[in-house]
Amino acid sequence: MSKKSWFSNLKCRECGRLYEKEAIHICEFDFGPLEAAYDYEAIRGVLTREVIESRPKSMWRYRELLPIDGDPTVGTQVGFTPLVKSDRLAKKLGIRELWIKNDTVNYPTLSFKDRVVSVALSRARELGFEVVACASTGNLANSVAANAAAAGLKSYVLIPANLEQGKILGSLVYGTNVIGINGPYDQVNRLCSEIAGKYGWGFVNVNLRPYYAEGSKSMGFEIAEQSGWQLPRHTVVPMASGSLLTKIHKAYKEFVDLGLVEVSDFAIHGAQATGCSPISTAFKRATEMVRPVQNPETIAKSLAIGTPADGYYALRSMKETGGSAEDCTDEEIVEGIKLLAEHAGIFAETAGGVTVACAKKLIETGKIPSNESAVLCITGHGLKTQEAIIGKVGEPRVIGPSLREFEALVADEVAIKS
Amino acid sequence: MPTVRIPTPLRKLTDNQEVVTVTGATLGAILDELNTTYPGLGERILDEQGAIRRFVNIFLNDEDVRFLQEKETPVSDKDEISIVPAIAGG
Q1: Which end of chain B has the lower number of beta carbons within 10 A, N or C?
Q2: Nearest-CB residue to A190 (from B53, B64, B87)
Q3: Assessment of whether the complete model's pTM goes beyond 0.90
């Protein structure tokens, strides 16, 4: 492999103007977002199923479709998380076949954000950055902190000050600079835009966003490969900025265009928490105008983005594929977490509860027909958001170390046989 | 007269002025007047059909004009209009 880069330019999603592959993220002309563009003709010649299957099981087996110039240097072991079939959850939710794309066990920080950070920091190094940073609702901060530590990059992570303890500790432990901001994510984000303009830092989701965002495609590539080189009929994706959903859509389209999967109908559905549901609200009102939510109120803090940068494109992806959007209450989120844990043995964070709860509604309302098959994208681990379920999953029954006490305790439980 | 705040990337077209004053009774009239005074500004804000570009936000005081009456939004002398590129992130 002499050629290392199939990534040609950055391109405005709105007007198509081409830009050099620098640390820039919006079009100078119309402020549209810049996106990575590739030489697909060249990729078609080198990227086959056999080539991919011969490579190590990480997200980098799809390297030609990720926007860096050389070999990846950060997060080389990220991705290729399990795609798990759950007959018990399928039965519970009333659908023929159900699969879980389990990014709760993504390496190294137990969320899908390791995918985007792996690309963003590999690119940050290529561009010569020594300090990397992010605006985050928690998972991204964890991943930037961990991957920057391993790579020897200095990092700053800016988060809403009221995040879950697990997400704050899960950044601090890596020796990063955690800055808590008194305000919701959107204000953290606005501040980061100002900082990115003033300091010469690589903000993974601001000036490095075109690179970062492409990392999410790997979740879609893996789902297609692990489904036996087929696209799932239905995919349910949680939405914060809407970026993951649009990138899974892009991944499926790229695989079709490259002939890696057969052309088949697929629908992509989006899930939000009702307390911060600007995208699903716009979808239900059949408008392309995403009305910002000023004060998000939901236990799904990782999804609490009131002004979703990719809201418009997420709406378009759902519409184009015949998908739909749904949202759920805090109680339904907790119920979703429990359903997934008790039926599939997977402990997801609140965003996973959102995905399960919304999938349940989509199946109940027939938007996902019960005789079809669906993949649920579960994006982060439940140990990170323990506050959400404390007191809602019962308490241990405590006894002394005595067989008599134990037998008294379980005497009425029919499953116990001596 | 109403004032219009110009974002950094567009100040090349307004002789580096951050705030300009423009006459007009509606947002549309003000945008027309802006383009007459500062040629080239119009196409950066409005698309070929004359609609506000998707990644340009225009606020009348604190409200996004998409949720008022867009270009038909009435503007009074004391109003402040802000042109703000959409913020990425998340």
Answers
A1: N
A2: B87
A3: yes
